[in-house]
Each structure stands twice: as structure tokens, then as C-alpha cells.
């Protein structure tokens, strides 16, 4: 019975995202352009380096890492901050708060539909194309299982961060500024723009103590490692799990405290 | 109707600008946060360059400072589109809701009136960051400084701006035909991130595409060659001011054509 309400939200989300077909086409073109730029940029970089392996990563590794990071971004980005911010400005949030479901959960499940469509229309094709283009450079084994587990936790961490940042909008009236700051920090420090292996040592150490690398770096590292050592896998997954729990608690607490502050225009 | 002079339009622009700034100032927190967000984005771009060039001394014969110059050049040339033409982002909302019709009843140029309504101050943060980057890389490369080079700089910065403005006008105007032009605008916005890389890293096919079909290379690469590599300036660089004006004129006609076709929503 409990599951049914979640599934109906998911279904509504799938239908909603299929409605904007033209948007999807343009988005695919945009992603393709990005991939072309990334491909040639890193090709030029590796050509100038003179060696095949830089910081333990080959050109193929880097390419797979960055391409799949983009695919993961398209898959995980839920525009939560925008949604919360807009709902606050328009006053619609009052209606959502009255729903017989926790707001945090409601928002997540109403987006879960676009997870499904994004997975089949963006992530899976990208994954297969990358696999073919690089002549099977993605190892297929137990690492796939670890990757899936890791991605699920990454989705949760990403959502918690988004929800936390979205809560800030209750206080600031600013959506664009808050969202762009979040996006810039997450994309840079999670390794989505440049693999973390290329970071200077001090920065690398700092980044490993932050939650952001658990979103992109962790699943991609697990995926690219063909013969994973039990220790590494365990460290990465448990770090993710800890962040998963910590961020969930933090975002829930912050939301609870902030809700007392809420002022709704003309609600 | 009598043709109105430039002085008349400047006076009107001043008046509309003052009104817009006054209304913006009532959301002071939003203004401050947005400006910080803008600077964040620019710093992140800077940091990723720094990380890349820590690992690789040069890319495709382009040194760190030359790349920084390109980056600064693109930031400065993107300022006008950010500051003066930001209302393009709202065009689809006005057209969709029918509010656009109010602009059609003014006895001044429709395009001018629409664009003058919003002045985006956060572009100024980007401008100062861009100028800083330009001066820093300029002094490191040792380009020298003469009034002639300064004049060239200004002309070619304006050229690059015109191209970006033209691209944005045209993509915003698509909303007169399709419902949601957001994706098209977003795609064009991404162009500016790719503009900061030298076009020579691409294969000939994509060099052609990025020059003639999607003129990304004109946003920074071709115009800045005039300053950066004065000994080997290709013909396209010299032609770019002409191309900029032509593009702007075409996009203006396209925008106006869409606006004239607009028949309101009937409300």
C-alpha cells in the first residue's frame, strides 16, 4: 500500500518528462557538443604531455570518467533548488506542505520519474556508446554491481545537498545566486569537470574529506577499476554511506528548523 | 512615424535604467548573492585552468597565460550580453502569457524598448574579473602596450560581444515559433564555456563547424588572435568585425520578424 503512492508519483513524472520532447532533443545536441569539446580538449592535452599515462590515468580512462560524469550529472540533476525556490516565491509550497507526505520525500518521488526516463534516454545510450567507442575499455564484472550501489548512494547524497541548499532559499529570496554557487562547488570539487586524480596533493586531501567527491568520483572510480581490492571498495562505499546518513540528517534537521521561519506571500 | 534620433534613445535608456535599478535595489540580498555567485563561477573557471596547467605545461602550443588571456577575453566580451540583453531570458514567459503585447504599443523601437527594460548588474562582477585576468595574463606574456593595441582590443572585444548578442537574440526569438525556447537559450549559453579553448585543438571538420555553422570560435579565438599572435593573423580575424555586425543585423531582423508575427494570446 505504501509503495503505491510513490509509484504513482513516479509515473506522473515519467509522463511529464516525456511531454517535452523538443527539449530533450536540444539537450542531447548540447551534451553531444560538450562531449566533442571534452574529447578534443583532452586529446590535445595528452598529445602535449608526451606520455600515455598521467597521474595514473590514460586518455581513455579520463574520457570515460568525464563522459560518464556528464551522463551522471544529467541523470542526477533534479533542479531541486529551483523547484523549492519557485514554490516559495509563488506560495505553492503551502499546498505541498499540506500533502499527507513529508515534503522532502514528496519532492524526491515526484522527480523519480525523470530518473527513469533520463536513465534510459541519456545514461544507458552514453554508457553503451562509450563502451563501443573505447573498444570495451569499461571492465564488465563485479565492478558494475559496486557502481550501481555507489550511484544509488550518490543520488541520495546529491539530493540531500540540493535540499539543504534549497532550504536556504527560505531565508534569502535569491534562487539564481544560491543555485549557481552550489553547482559550481559541487561540479568542481566532485571531480566532474577535472578528475580528482589531477588535483594537487593538498587540494586532493581536502576534497576527500568533503562529501562532494562521493557523488561523481566514488562511483566512477569503482567503475573504472577492473580488479578492485576489497579494501578500496569497502573504504569508498562506507565513506559514501556515512555521508549519505550525515547529509540526510543535516538536511532534514535544517528543513525542520527553517520551516518555522517560513513566510509565504499572500498564501 | 518620424525617425527618432540616437540622443532620444539614449535619454530614454537612462530613464528606464534608473527605474530598473531602483526596483532591483529593493531586493538587495538577491543582488549581493547573485554577484557573489557570478564571481564564484569565474573563480571556478580560473581554478580548473590552474589545475590543468599544473599537470601540463602547454596545450597544443598554447601556454598557460595565453589560455588565460583567451579566458579573460571571453569573460569581458560576454559582459554586454549579460548586462544589456538579459531580458531575452524572459521573452518566452512574456510571449507565453501574452504580456508581450504591451511592448508593441509603444511609439519607440520594439526591440530597443524590450531589451532596455532590464539591466543585469551582476555582469559587472564578471567584467571586473575578466579585466583582471586580461591584465594579469597581458603582463605575463609581455605583449606591450600602445594606444593602437588598445584600440584594436576594444574593437575586437566589441566584435566578439556582437556575435554573442546575435546568437542570444536569435535563440530567444525562436520562442515566437516554438513554445519553450529555454533549451535553445541554454544550449547557446554553453557555447561561451567552449569559446575559451583555441579552435586549433579540434579536427578540421569541427573547426569548420565551430567557425561557420555554430560560430563559437568568433566569441574569443579569432578576435583575440589579433592581439595575441599579431604575426599570424588569419583573414577570418580581420573579417570578424564585419561578421559581427552582419550577425547582429540578421538576428535583429529575425527577432523583429518574430515579434511582428506575434498576435497576442487574445487576453
Number of distinct beta strands of chain B = 2
Q: What overall geometry of chain A do the principal axes of the alpha carbons give?
A: globular
* Rg of chain B, Cα atoms, Å: 20 Å
Can you give the helix content of chain B as a percent range? 55-70%
Overview features:
heterodimer; A: 267 residues; mainly alpha; 11 helices; 0% strand; globular; B: 267 residues; 12 helices; 2 strands; 70% helix
Description:
Helix content of chain A is 76%, strand content 0%. Chain A has 267 residues and is mainly alpha-helical. Chain A has one domain (2-259). In chain A, α2 (21-49) runs antiparallel to α3 and α7 (142-172) runs antiparallel to α10. Chain B has 267 residues and is mostly helical. Chain B has one domain. In chain B, α2 runs parallel beside α7, α8 (147-173) packs antiparallel against α9 and α8 (147-173) runs parallel beside α12 (235-261). The chains are: A mainly alpha (267), B mainly alpha (267). The interface between A and B is large, with 40 and 40 residues.
Short description:
The complex is a heterodimer of chains A (267) and B (267). With 267 residues, chain A is an all-alpha fold. Chain A contains eleven helices and no strands.
Summarize the SSE layout with pairings.
The complex is a heterodimer of chains A (267) and B (267).
Chain A: H1 2-19, H2 21-49, H3 59-76, H4 80-90, H5 93-98, H6 103-133, H7 142-172, H8 176-189, H9 201-208, H10 217-224, H11 230-259
Helix pairs in contact in A: 1-6, 2-3, 3-6, 3-10, 4-7, 7-10, 7-11
Chain B: H1 6-25, H2 28-55, E1 58-59, E2 62-63, H3 64-77, H4 79-84, H5 91-97, H6 110-116, H7 123-141, H8 147-173, H9 182-194, H10 204-213, H11 221-228, H12 235-261
Antiparallel strand pairs in B: 1-2
Amino acid at each position: 500500500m505504501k509503495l503505491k503512492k510513490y509509484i504513482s508519483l513516479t509515473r506522473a513524472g515519467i509522463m511529464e518528462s516525456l511531454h517535452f520532447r523538443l527539449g530533450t532533443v536540444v539537450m542531447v545536441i548540447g551534451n553531444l557538443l560538450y562531449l566533442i569539446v571534452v574529447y578534443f580538449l583532452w586529446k590535445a592535452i595528452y598529445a602535449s604531455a608526451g606520455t600515455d599515462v598521467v597521474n595514473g590515468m590514460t586518455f581513455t580512462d579520463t574520457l570515460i570518467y568525464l563522459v560518464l560524469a556528464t551522463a551522471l550529472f544529467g541523470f542526477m540533476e533534479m533542479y531541486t533548488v529551483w523547484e523549492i525556490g519557485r514554490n516559495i516565491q509563488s506560495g505553492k509550497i503551502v499546498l505541498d506542505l499540506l500533502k499527507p507526505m513529508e515534503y522532502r520525500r514528496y519532492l524526491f518521488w515526484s522527480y523519480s520519474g525523470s530518473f527513469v526516463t533520463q536513465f534510459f534516454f541519456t545514461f544507458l545510450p552514453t554508457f553503451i556508446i562509450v563502451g563501443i567507442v573505447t573498444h570495451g575499455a569499461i571492465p564488465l564484472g563485479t565492478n558494475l554491481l559496486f557502481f550501481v550501489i555507489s550511484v544509488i548512494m550518490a543520488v541520495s547524497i546529491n539530493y540531500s545537498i540540493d535540499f539543504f541548499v534549497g532550504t536556504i532559499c527560505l531565508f534569502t529570496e535569491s534562487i539564481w545566486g544560491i543555485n549557481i554557487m552550489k553547482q559550481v562547488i559541487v561540479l568542481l570539487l566532485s571531480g566532474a569537470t577535472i578528475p580528482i586524480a589531477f588535483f594537487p596533493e593538498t587540494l586532493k586531501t581536502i576534497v576527500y574529506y568533503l562529501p562532494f567527491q562521493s557523488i561523481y568520483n566514488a562511483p566512477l572510480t569503482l567503475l573504472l577499476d577492473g580488479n578492485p581490492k576489497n579494501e578500496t571498495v569497502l573504504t569508498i562505499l562506507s565513506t559514501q554511506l556515512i555521508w549519505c546518513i550525515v547529509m540526510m540528517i543535516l538536511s532534514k534537521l535544517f528543513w525542520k528548523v527553517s520551516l518555522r521561519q517560513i513566510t509565504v506571500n499572500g498564501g | 512615424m518620424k525617425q527618432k534620433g540616437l540622443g532620444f534613445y539614449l535619454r530614454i535608456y537612462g530613464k528606464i535604467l534608473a527605474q530598473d535599478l531602483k526596483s532591483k535595489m529593493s531586493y538587495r540580498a538577491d543582488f549581493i548573492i547573485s554577484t557573489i555567485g557570478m564571481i564564484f563561477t569565474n573563480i571556478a573557471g580560473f581554478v580548473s585552468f590552474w589545475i590543468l596547467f599544473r599537470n601540463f605545461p602547454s596545450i597544443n602550443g598554447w601556454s598557460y597565460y595565453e589560455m588565460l588571456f583567451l579566458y579573460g577575453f571571453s569573460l569581458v566580451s560576454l559582459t554586454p550580453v549579460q548586462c544589456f540583453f538579459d531580458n531575452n531570458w524572459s521573452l518566452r514567459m512574456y510571449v507565453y502569457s501574452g504580456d508581450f503585447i504591451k511592448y508593441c504599443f509603444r511609439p519607440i523601437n520594439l526591440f530597443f524598448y524590450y531589451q532596455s527594460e532590464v539591466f543585469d548588474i551582476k555582469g559587472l562582477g564578471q567584467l571586473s574579473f575578466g579585466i583582471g585576468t586580461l591584465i594579469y595574463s597581458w603582463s605575463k606574456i609581455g605583449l606591450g602596450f600602445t594606444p593602437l593595441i588598445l584600440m584594436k582590443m576594444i574593437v575586437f572585444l566589441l566584435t566578439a560581444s556582437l556575435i554573442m548578442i546575435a546568437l542570444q537574440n536569435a535563440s530567444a526569438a525562436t520562442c515566437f515559433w516554438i513554445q519553450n525556447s529555454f533549451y535553445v537559450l541554454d544550449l547557446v549559453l554553453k557555447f561561451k564555456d567552449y569559446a575559451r579553448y583555441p579552435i586549433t585543438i579540434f579536427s578540421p571538420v569541427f573547426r569548420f563547424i565551430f567557425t561557420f555553422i555554430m560560430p563559437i570560435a568568433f566569441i574569443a579565438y579569432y578576435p583575440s588572435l589579433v592581439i595575441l599572435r599579431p604575426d599570424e593573423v588569419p583573414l577570418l580575424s580581420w573579417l570578424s568585425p564585419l561578421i559581427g555586425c552582419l550577425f547582429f543585423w540578421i538576428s535583429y531582423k529575425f527577432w523583429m520578424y518574430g515579434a511582428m508575427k506575434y498576435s497576442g494570446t487574445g487576453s
